[in-house]
Amino acid sequence: MGDSTDPADPANAAKPAVLIIGGLGYIGRFLAHHIHSQNLASTLRLVDKQLPQLASLAPEHQAACSTANFLQADASREASQARIFDLPAHPDGRKREFDYVFNCGGETRFSQEDEVYKVRSYGLSLTVGKEAARRGVRAFVEVSTGHVYNPSRTPQKEGDKTSKPHTKQAKWKLAAEEGLAKIPGLKLCVLRLPLVYGPYAGRWLGTLLALARVYQSREPKETMKWLWGSELRTNTLHVEDAAMGLWLAAEWRARNERIPNAPANERIVFNVVDKGATSQGTMAAIIRQIFGIETGFQNTLVNTFARLNLEHVVDEVNDDTLDDWADLQEEAGIKGNGGPLSPFMERELLRDADLSLDGGRFESVVGFRPRHERITKEEVQAVIESYKRMKWWP
After folding, report:
1. Please, are residues 64 and 37 in contact by the beta-carbon 8 Å criterion?
2. Are residues 44 and 124 in the same domain?
């Protein structure tokens, strides 16, 4: 492992040394690309358990995520911290430390056992946070989720209730936020993100698009129907804006000890969200336009049944679509090379729970302005084009 830039170069001397935990994850690789392409760091190091060669990297991410910048390690283990954090000394022998540490790591799968999230998310955050504090890192940015809030259609602010997180993943992310806040000397900044989408996206948008492709292929045509209703909030953020927001947060946190006009002991937490107030109705309209299929919403009777039998409903949907998706892939000659795409629905993400965030604090305090203001037909079409470039799209 090397670190691709030369800190001895006078042009780089004033730039921060940057460490990204979970650097090959979806947000991590876009953050690495943002930093690398704009030459923002004197040193850039990505840490991940998986290798770049196995990470299905897009061509534009190859340079930022190259082996020159990469270290394979399990960041949840205390024994790995020295390898992860140690840097070569300055030319004059002075010790070097990372300035900014971004934790984009943690368990991203849904519906896992609590112990999995406790070790891979909560444990990872606290282990890395303690090391960052010990070394005097100038900004530690923790990537969290808007799913920590109690479901509400009203946009949630940073001080609103978090007693009923939507998912087990969110429950342990919230526990990590609280644990990190208790580490003495840690210059912590927590960012709570909504549903992140963009080129090469899997998870929420990838699942939705794979489902739409299955419905598009069916004869006779069927209506693609959502549970719950058109008003259910599914707030969004483009991954490029997420990367930009992370960088702005680190720069701001390195210069500031507290949020202006906030109590001295208030945790530094920001929501980061676009301007779109995205809902299921938003997505249904976009899917209809792109795929030329009818979309709609289930009636009250079906929704009532689903609330009582969600696991059964999700299993039925998955049984109904997974074989069709596999057939589409086979016909297109891409079986086994579908990247992160699958119509497999996660029960935790199908709950009748609004994800609605107020991003005003991050905009007013840090100066964030999303470049992708809302999810549109054009934005989603660009995501599909990214799948085609990777030969993932049937």
Report:
1. yes
2. yes
